[in-house]
Design goal:
- It is a single chain.
- The chain has a ten-stranded mixed sheet, sandwiched between helices. A six-stranded antiparallel sheet has the order 24-25-27-28-29-26, covered by helices on one side.
- The radius of gyration is 26 Å and the shape is globular.
- Among the domains are: 1-160, Rossmann fold (3-Layer(aba) Sandwich), CATH 3.40.50.12780; 364-472, ANL, C-terminal domain (GMP Synthetase, Chain A, domain 3); 483-597, Hotdog Thioesterase (Thiol Ester Dehydrase, Chain A, Roll), CATH 3.10.129.10.
- With 600 residues, the protein is α/β, with parallel strands linked by helices.
- It contains 15 helices and 29 strands.
Length: 600
């Protein structure tokens, strides 16, 4: 455990067979179960054999996407043992897969069927001793992608030595404080932050991990009530933690919280310190550079960042103010790397962040700061959050392309009230009025898009692609129903497969971090499809034995079983995936009145 330049699997193999690696829900089970070192090594062996059989020798690159962190780790380590470079993507959307196909021909895990991904191997029962092989410092272990928050996602290669150096530094800085606490996360391991903090670091030092992302505050509270935990989160998640839960009962078990991916609002840091007894540890860095600095803001104030040990840094401007430049063991060479963030140096170990250089745009040859405009809009009581981007649109009169600023506004309750009572135009005028003293008229947004919340990805970031997708679908009607495949049908029973589109209208507000299908929609769909396929009375008369057990997420096949009992005039419905029950209930039906009855 003292030599972090060994790969995590070698360190896992040195542990006892009954050591707990983490907790997961095995296929076909909804109960959380412990996974031991011996069970984990069986999964590594199964993946190694599967990849050897299905991947040509000349293919030394593969893309990997698995939501279960323990299964992901087993596949990752198996690929590394076969000297495969693993490409990670934050999601499996079509645009993302198109980027990956330019680089890799082999896809592993939960990718769309048309990519012919290698699926999870069956459970092994016989274990043959795995030889410790280790990884060379120069082994090309990973290719990760930037979040795409300011444009097209960029591929970034990572040698094993870069990853190992960061693991070593994280443990040196925080390890003593974390002790033997287990790791839970609301972020995905498919991004470098989640990968390091939820997979590589814990596996290297023997901290157990929870395999699935815990996306809801109640799950965090429950996990903390069982044992000491460390939470790996994003600002998008942390700023929505509710105050009403019984956090006081678990303060001594929530050992630490890490936040990365963007600045955590000061008021959120203070609120969480009050709820949890300590403020989150914020980590600043990038996909290219790894971690650069950290801070933990307390109620006495202070927003300076403290640079990690081993990181060299300087400001690119005069008087300590300018673009940040770093040199670190997490980079591929010893050259200075220039970031797009502007800083102000405080002393040899601390700096303040001032905003991003790449958010200075040119409109009609005028330099415009999108950060300054966003900060001005955030001062309004009408605005909860805001994001601006520059969109290039054709000017039909002059037959040229013009750049125009588009505003995406997450409205506060006051803003929502104004929109509902007075309409969009007065709201546009109110927000334009805030910007008039800040920028020239040519830079005022030409389009305003009002949302319940800004869209975020698995890393808690709002990507450029997500905002552009909103523009592309702005004039198109949002779907209200899923994609349907009829599996079985009789006079009293129908079985359907549903795939819920990610842009479903009813996902708005349910929820920005992890969209789930509202229960009232599930009941409505049961009635709707019963009317289509079973010709049942369409009027709702009441509910019995209603249970919602597991959430239904977008883009994942779910089966819906409907059973109509004519004698009792009831409709029984069941949403399920394999052995996992999502929702069940029985609807009491009423016959629609005839025309004569309506006039009686």
């Amino acid at each position: 455990m003292s030599n972090f330049f060994q790969d995590p699997l070698t360190l896992v193999m040195a542990r006892s067979a009954d050591a707990i690696i983490g907790w997961h829900c095995p296929p076909g089970s909804s109960t959380l179960q412990a996974m031991t070192q011996a069970q984990f090594l069986l999964r590594v062996q199964a993946w190694q054999e599967q990849l050897k059989e299905t991947t040509p020798l000349e293919q030394n690159k593969l893309a990997l996407f698995l939501e279960d962190s323990l299964e992901f780790a087993a596949a990752l380590f198996a690929a590394w043992r076969l000297q495969k470079t693993v490409y990670l993507s934050a999601d499996t959307l079509e645009h993302t897969c198109q980027l990956l196909r330019k680089e890799v021909a082999v896809f592993v895990g939960q990718f769309p069927a048309h990519l012919k991904p290698i699926s999870s191997p069956p459970k092994h029962s016989d274990f043959s001793e795995l030889a410790a092989i280790g990884l060379d410092d120069d082994f090309p272990a990973l290719v990760v992608y930037t979040s795409g928050s300011s444009g097209e996602a960029q591929a970034i290669p990572k040698k094993w030595s870069q990853l190992a150096a960061e693991i070593q530094n994280l443990e040196a800085q925080f390890g003593a404080h974390l002790g033997e606490a287990s790791i839970i996360a609301s972020v995905s391991h498919q991004h470098i932050y989640g990968l390091l903090f939820k997979i590589l670091w814990p596996f290297s030092v023997g901290r157990a991990v929870h395999a699935l992302a815990l996306e809801f505050p109640e799950q965090i509270l429950h996990a903390a009530s069982q044992a000491p935990i460390v939470l790996i989160a994003s600002p998008a998640h942390l700023k929505r933690i509710p105050e009403h839960l019984a956090w006081a009962s678990v303060q001594n078990r929530l050992v630490a919280t890490f936040s990365s991916g963007g600045p955590l609002p000061l008021e959120s840091a203070h609120a969480l310190e009050k709820l949890w007894g300590q403020a989150p540890i914020e980590v600043y860095g990038s996909s290219e550079t790894g971690g650069i600095a950290w801070r933990q803001r307390h109620n006495e104030g202070g927003d300076a960042w403290r640079v990690f040990s081993g990181i060299e840094w300087k400001s690119g401007g005069k008087d300590g103010e300018g673009s940040l430049q770093v040199r670190s063991p997490y980079l591929p060479d010893e050259q200075w790397f220039c970031l797009a963030d502007r800083i102000k140096a405080i002393d040899a170990q601390h700096f303040q962040l001032l905003g991003r250089e790449d958010r200075i745009v040119k409109i009609e040859e005028k330099r415009i700061s999108l950060d300054r405009m966003e900060n001005a809009l955030k001062t309004s009581a009408l605005v909860k959050d805001v994001r601006l981007l520059v969109n290039t649109l054709p000017d039909t009169k002059e037959k040229i392309q013009r750049q125009k600023i588009v505003a995406f506004i997450a409205l506060s309750e006051l803003g929502q009230t104004l929109l509902q009572t007075q309409g969009k135009r007065p709201l546009n005028q109110a927000l334009r009025g805030i910007l008039v003293p800040v920028v020239e008229a040519l830079a005022l947004p030409r389009s305003w898009r009002y949302l319940d919340a800004l869209p975020v990805n698995a890393q808690g970031k709002t990507s450029h692609a997500q905002l552009l997708a909103l523009l592309e679908t702005e004039e198109m009607p949002r779907p209200k129903y899923p994609h349907i495949t009829l599996l079985e049908q009789s006079t009293e029973r129908v079985l359907l497969e549903l795939v819920v589109p990610k842009n479903l209208l009813y996902f708005d507000g349910h929820f920005p971090i992890a969209p789930i299908l509202p229960g009232v929609v599930q009941i409505d769909w049961a009635l709707y499809y019963a009317g289509q396929y079973l010709n049942v009375p369409a009027l709702f008369g009441g509910m019995q034995v209603l249970k919602f057990q597991q959430v239904i997420a977008p883009e994942k096949p779910v089966q819906l079983e409907l059973i109509f009992t004519a004698q009792k005039n009831t409709l029984q419905f069941r949403y399920f995936t394999g052995s996992i029950q999502h929702a069940t209930g029985r609807i009491l039906l009423e016959h629609a009145p005839t025309l004569e009855e309506c006039h009686a």
